[in-house]
Amino acid sequence: MRILIADDNRDAADTLAMVLRFWGHEVRAVYDGRGALLTARSFKPHAALLDIQMPHLNGGDVALDLRKHSEGTFIIALTANDPDDPRLARYDGAFDAFVSKPCDLDHLAELLARRRSGSTIRRQQLSTSS
Amino acid sequence: MAYLRGQGRQAGLGYLAAFVATAIVLLVRRFVLADLFGPDAPLYLFLFAVVASAWFGGLKAGLLATGLSALAGTYILIVRDGWFIADTGDRLRLIVFLLSGVTISWFAESMHRSREGADRQRESLRITLDSIGDAVIATDAEGRITSLNPVAETLTGWTRAEALGRPLQEVFHIISEWTHERLEDPVKHVLAEGRIIGLANHTLLIARDGTERPIDDSASPIKDAEGTILGVVLIFRDITERKRAERTRLQLAAIVESSDDAIIGMDLEGIIRSWNRGAEQLYGYTAGEVVGKPLSLLISPDHPDELPMILERLRRGERIEHFETVRVCKDGRRVDVSLSISPIKDESERIIGVSKIARDVTERKRLYEQLQEADRRKDEFLAILAHELRNPLAPIRNALQIIRLAGDDKASVEKAAVVMDRQLQQMVRLIDDLMDVSRITRNKLKLHRERVDLATVVRNAVETSRPLIEAAGHELTLSLPDEPILVDADSARLSQVFANLLNNAAKYTERGGRISLTLQRESSHAVLRVKDTGIGISAEHLPHLFEMFSQVERSLERSQGGLGIGLNLAKRLTEMQGGMIEAHSEGLNKGSEFLVRLPAVSDSPTQPHPAAEQEDKPGPQRCKVLIVDDDEDTVTSLSIMLRILGHEVLSAHDGVQAIEAANSFRPDVVLLDIALPKMNGYEVARRIRQESWGESMKLVALTGWGQEEDKRRSIQAGFNHHLTKPMEPTALEVLLKELCPRST
Fold first, then answer.
1. B17-33 mean pLDDT
2. Which of B88, B465, B506, B565 has the fewest C-beta atoms under 10 angstroms from its C-beta?
């Protein structure tokens, strides 16, 4: 799958990209919201992992924009916040799933696998296990 | 005659007297006075009998005597034959006699009556006096007691019988409560001045048995119609109860007056009846200004129902506690108060008024709000903390995964390791900051102050912050003075402060901004300025900038990481070193400038204070010392001592370790405990001496025993010296001075 990662913490973005590459995906990592939108246009990712708190344009707004332009993209929010944080409420419809940072990689793998197999994912909020 | 005077009428005696007197007169007339008077019978002699009878028995006795006398006189002395008196003259004389007799009897009767009336009055008065609650003593014009009522008997301890006739002072013994001197007899006073006298306050009456009672009294003269004083009546009462009540009342009044709380008394219509000093202080009105006025003058117009509501509840007998509301003072100022309101009841439990205690709670409210604010910020801080500590965890976890997955891909593994390192450092730094703040708060942060050139500190700080500045693409300009500026400070901590300012400048400025740092001397101070072209600070935020947990309001877009404690920490660290830190900004998006001011010192940089821990700085005399002992505490305490003295220390815990350590560490001095596991100290010493590197090593034996015998044994084993435990620090110091080579 083509996966787009956006996170302003470069190390987080890069390392996650490396892991996903090891899993066999084609990955692009960007470090801010605007970059995410730009790259998405040309890269056309199957899935996008977006950090919420980024400068200029946060992950939520990116998600809303992506949702408008590319229907099929599986959008996952990566957040260090509490998933029940009321500030995230406005983005509820934009994301297919919420994952808490640091993300449980097994869980992430599972999500991506389901997406790849094409089964519909119920849009829901998920908190990290562990 | 006194006997006669004192008696009342005696009817029986009167009748008897009538007969007897008549008989006596008759006999006397007939036999004794017969010659004098001849046959003529003066009836008037019988008048004596009438008088005597009437004297005793009043009208009836007198009439009886008159009758008897008339009969006796007429028939025994005058009438010879027949039943009637023949002579007209005799008849006339009889009629005159009868009239006289009746008149005398009448007068006697009046006399009796009036005496009885007087007696009754006196009796009635006596009963009255006996039954009133006050003590009454009456005296004559010479001051002798004529009457004493039961209350007076009780209070003085004298009975009526004993007291009558005595001079007043014998019975009525009064002294001053204060001086305990005998007070002047009031009766004398009255007799002298002829008017009502009241005794001064604080008089004590001493009863016959010695009991002292406080009394209140007044004495008045008894005068007749001409104004002559016939005597004195003294009225007094025991006022112990009253004094006690008075004292209690004064105490309570004093308590109310001296209370800092406002205590206000009100009647059931809401009119102020009492107003203490606390109320004056709280509301600004004096008692004179408000007593008699309605309480509503204190209540603000936007609470019109408050007073009626309060009065209503109180009429029902309810108390109101901790009622928080607002009141208006004399100067129009509003004050937050907490009220406790209770009904005032009389003895029959009827509500007669209202007592209100008002406490100014403005301070308390303010503190409460501050506390809530602080609590809120702490909660926010914890949330931020959780968030910030989480941030480095994601890359670390990913990196671990990479290492697992990478296999032979060394490049990837290396990258992962680098990332982990970096993120860990970030976490360490965060936690260090936290620890610093915690330590400062608990006053446990120690500064290692020394004279240091600020330029050096600045350069260190710049090095620390450089990665962040460069990563954000900022341009940094440094302006440092030619002359060194020296301060007495902890260079590491100061560098921390400067780095913090530089980091902030980098974080809170848009990419490609400009940061400038200038250091210069201004009179006796060193001034450092860090200026940036960043997002600036709003005017409302500026005053709170250096407070704990303050951070520019975090929106989702603009989070820059960090706990919000950096500036607070910087401020505290600066102030601990005698400096000052300030912030300036023209406003949002207009950049910011931070200033640090430190007192400059003039001498050249000197060596650090000898008491400070010296890990890396060479002291005047420095050895490498190996401590070998299996006892932890010994090793610890010796290490500390040695480090303070400026030496480099290593430790080993058994013989085998000792030899290995001696070989690798090559100490100048070895402090060797004899009682070691695996191999004892003597053996260790021998082995060391056998080695080439151990020949000239100074070996010191440490033992718990110090007999001459043991010392000799140590020397034989190859030890240079022998010390007994526990050892004096000075002994160790002296020994090491001797053993250690002096550094050049």
1. 77
2. B88
